[in-house]
């Protein structure tokens, strides 16, 4: 299980990304549309003044149960360990052990 601090840090990042998403997208669009170099540099400065953690690149997928960052399955939002246990217990609808 991951540290509680790591899980909280990740949720804080998710909140910041959602909060600044529209502002970040509009600044990037303005940078693309502007042809003047001075204006582009000014817009880049504004973009750099946003918090670091408001960038979606800094997010990391974590298991919703354990907070484990590795072995993450996007479709379920779970790590491989929890996915296996829940599938064996029948807690995931539509998931069954393969047989051939």
TrEMBL record:
Domain of life: Eukaryota
Alphabetical keyword list: Chloroplast, Plastid, Ribonucleoprotein, Ribosomal protein, RNA-binding, rRNA-binding
Alphabetized GO MF terms: rRNA binding; structural constituent of ribosome
GO cellular component: chloroplast; small ribosomal subunit
Alphabetical list of InterPro entries matching this protein: Ribosomal_uS14 (IPR001209), Ribosomal_uS14_bac/plastid (IPR023036), Ribosomal_uS14_CS (IPR018271)
Subcellular compartments: Plastid, Chloroplast
Keyword Transmembrane helix: no
GO biological process: translation
UniProt cross-references to NCBIfam families, sorted A to Z: PRK08881.1 (NF006477)
HAMAP family recorded: Ribosomal_uS14_1
Family (UniProt): Belongs to the universal ribosomal protein uS14 family.
Protein task: Binds 16S rRNA, required for the assembly of 30S particles.
Subunit description: Part of the 30S ribosomal subunit.
This protein's name: Small ribosomal subunit protein uS14c
Species this protein is from: Bracteacoccus minor
């Amino acid at each position: 299980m991951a540290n509680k601090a790591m899980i909280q840090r990740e949720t804080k990042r998710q909140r910041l990304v959602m909060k600044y998403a529209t502002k970040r997208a509009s600044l990037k669009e303005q940078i693309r549309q502007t042809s003047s170099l001075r204006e582009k540099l000014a817009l880049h400065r504004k973009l750099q003044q946003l918090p670091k953690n408001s960038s979606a690149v800094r997010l990391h997928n974590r298991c919703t149960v354990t907070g484990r960052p590795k072995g993450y399955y996007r479709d379920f939002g779970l790590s491989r360990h929890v996915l296996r246990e829940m599938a064996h217990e029948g807690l995931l609808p539509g998931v069954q052990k393969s047989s051939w």
